[in-house]
Structure formats: C-alpha cells, structure tokens
Specification:
Layout: H1 4-14, E1 21-24, H2 32-48, E2 53-58, E3 70-71, H3 78-85, E4 86-87, E5 91-97, E6 106-114, E7 122-123, E8 135-139, E9 142-146, H4 157-165, H5 171-184, E10 191-195, E11 199-210, E12 213-223, E13 228-233, E14 237-242, E15 246-257, E16 260-273, E17 279-285, H6 294-312, H7 319-324, H8 328-337, H9 343-357, H10 359-376
Parallel strand pairs: 1-2
Antiparallel strand pairs: 2-6, 3-6, 4-7, 5-6, 8-9, 10-11, 11-12, 12-13, 14-15, 15-16, 16-17
Length: 378
C-alpha cells in the first residue's frame, strides 16, 4: 500500500514537472478557465502515460517546492466532470494528504490519473478557449494541443514504478501517523479503530446532542496507512457509525431562514474494508433542497445584493447589516436551490469581499460553495 505523503515527497524530490507529474499552487474548477486548464492537464497526462499512473500535486509553490497546502477538497464526483468533458476519459481520483507542519484545515491535494483502454483521450466538447476534439500531450512540463496523428508511447513506466515502490507504507510510518494524529487532535476526543487487522482509521470530533440525536462537528477522519484525510469539516454536523468492516459518515447541512433552521442530510459516505487488503469508498447524495416562499426569498435575495454592493464600495455596515451578513452565504445558497439562477454567481462574487471583511463569514461562504459544487457534479 502506498503512503501518499511519502509519494508526494518522492515526486517533489525526483524531478521538476515532467510528462508524468505536474504541480499547482491551487486548483479552481469553479470557473471555466480553471476547469478547462484542469481538464487539459488530465487529458495530456493520460495520453503521455498510457500504462502507468500520472499525478498532479496541488498546494506547492512552483519555484522552490515549498508545501503551503490548500483547503480540504471533498468532491467525490470529480470523475463525473472528467467523463462529461473528455472522450476516452482516464480514471481520476482526488485525495487530501495531511502534512504535520500544515494547519488542520489545510492539506496537499493529490490527483491520480490512470489511462483506460489504450485509446487517445480528447476533449469531448468546447470549453473556454479549447475546442472539442482537441488532443493534448505533455511536452516536458507543458500540456500542449496536438493536431496530427499521434503514436502513444510508454516511456515512464519504470520511473513511475520506482517512485511508487519507494513510497510503500510500513509499520513505523503507520505508528508515527497514529501518534501524530492523537497528539494533534487531542482537544477533540481522538479515537482509532483497526479494520481487518490491517487498516487503521483515526478520527476526532466535537460531540453535539440535539433532540436525542448525536452529531459531530470539527470532524477529522484519516486513513493512516495511506496518510489520506478522508473527511474534514469545521462547520457541518456529521453522524458516524461503525461495524467490523465499515466506517459510515452521514453529513448534514443546516439550512433555514430567519433563525429557523433544520438539519438536512447531504451525503452518505461508506468505506468498506475487505479481507484482501483493499477497500472501497461509496458516496451517495441524499440532499433534497428545501423549498420556501418565493416572495420571502426575493426580499432576502435583494437584501443580500445590497449588502454585497456595500462591501464592494467599502460603505460602512450598520448593526443590522453586520447581523445579516452572517446569513448571506446560506441565503444565497437557499435562493439557488429555489431557482434563483444568478444566486450562485453572486455567492462566488461575494467570496473575496467576505474574506477581507470577516474570516468567519468567509468560512461560511466557502462552505456554501463546497455544498453547491458537490450537488452540481452529482
């Protein structure tokens, strides 16, 4: 089993970006340009490595390989995005890898790409400035479009195999990972469980009881064998249940208007551990958007827009404005669920201004965007 933290270190130490490995400061698939560039790199890496894995490491400075991290990214449906835009799509997985020097809300993103079927991958349809039918290949560290007949060559299998073999997990790495987790999360009741005498899962959370039900916030769950952060949430409530071979997480989102809120199931994630030292992760979207009176939403939507204009123009907020702005992300979210089509764009537009105004409100905004992204690609 590959220790993903060690794999990232080996990739960074092996060489600069090349035909089987790319690195990025951050990833933004919420905008057309960022989405198009991401798909371009996926396509190019798949075509340049038909018989081995390719990787994109996210959260690293380009000049000096400094690991600075990015926000936890939990879009398990990223394969749906790849399938929608690429013909002969590769298998793509996004994993969140914690590093000891990063804060608990930051990770390094690891995108693994595996070509399927030996056929050329190409854009299925137009996106941004790239045309449908375009084929991309890696030219050194650059993903380039190719418009001529291409012969797929396998030149990296031995190198990639060597890098992966030097990233195999061992007992020492597993024990170190358990101790690191238990010490770093000791304020939130850390626990661990061994599945199938092999897999070690650690988790920590703040317990909350409401109406006889147990929920958890500030949830952090890691698969120690691979050094992968399986789940992280500062704000949303989560229920956790275990059996001898399964770890199940149900995530809830709190939504409502005018101080009347309710928990709505968002997603169920079930990790099933097998006897052959493998595991499966299955996710199922449970969310059914709540519907509210359109007249009330229209009033709140316009109030949100007025608040956003004040932020943009640096107009001081009144006391009522300061209270209302904490509800701005959730209100835009509800408006979008109730067919206010431009609410998503307004939420994205508000993000940089909320970051300047108040970090707590900015965190709520990021959480709302995360929920929108998860539902959209499901």
């Amino acid at each position: 089993m590959i220790n993903k933290r060690l794999l990232i270190k080996n990739l960074l130490a092996h060489n600069d970006e090349n035909s089987f490995y790319d690195k990025k400061r951050k990833l933004n698939i919420g905008e057309k340009e960022g989405k198009a560039k991401f798909l371009k790199h996926i396509c190019a890496l798949a075509n340049s490595n038909p018989k081995n894995n390719s990787y994109i490491v996210i959260g690293v400075e380009d000049e000096d390989n400094q690991i600075i991290g990015v926000d936890f990214f939990d879009d398990s449906k990223i394969q749906n995005l790849v399938n929608a835009y690429l013909a002969n799509p590769p298998l793509v997985a996004y994993e969140n890898i914690p590093f000891p020097h990063l804060s608990s809300d930051k990770v390094v993103g690891l995108v693994s790409i595996r070509a399927e079927g030996g056929k050329l991958c190409s854009l299925r349809k137009n996106i941004w400035k790239y045309y449908g039918g375009t084929v991309f290949l890696r030219d050194g560290s650059i993903s380039m479009p190719k418009v001529f007949d291409i012969e797929i060559k396998d030149t990296n299998s031995e190198i990639v195999s060597s890098i992966e073999s030097h990233a195999q997990n061992n007992i020492e790495l597993t024990l170190d990972g358990v101790f690191d987790f238990m010490n770093s999360r000791k304020d939130y009741n850390p626990s661990y469980k061994v599945f199938k005498e092999y897999f070690v899962v650690c988790w920590a959370a703040k317990e909350k009881r409401q109406n006889g039900e147990v929920y958890y916030s500030r949830v952090d769950i890691e698969l120690i064998n691979e050094q992968v952060k399986l789940f992280y949430s500062e704000l949303d409530e989560v229920s956790i249940s275990l059996t001898e071979d399964q770890f199940k997480i149900v995530e809830y989102v709190q939504l409502g208007l005018q101080d009347t809120y309710k928990y709505y199931p968002l997603e169920e994630v079930v990790i099933t551990f097998k006897d052959n030292a493998s595991y499966d992760i299955e996710s199922k979207l449970l969310f059914k958007p709540p519907q509210f009176e359109r007249k009330t939403l229209f009033h709140l939507y316009n109030s949100n827009n007025a608040l956003l204009e004040k932020l943009k123009n640096k107009i001081p907020l009144s006391k009522n404005d300061e209270k209302d702005i904490h509800n701005l992300p959730a209100t835009y979210l509800l408006c979008y669920f109730n067919n206010f089509g431009e609410a998503k764009e307004k939420l994205e537009e508000a993000k940089p201004y909320l970051k300047i105004y108040d970090y707590n409100v900015y965190s709520l905004c990021k959480e709302s965007i995360r929920i929108l992204r998860k539902i959209r690609y499901s």
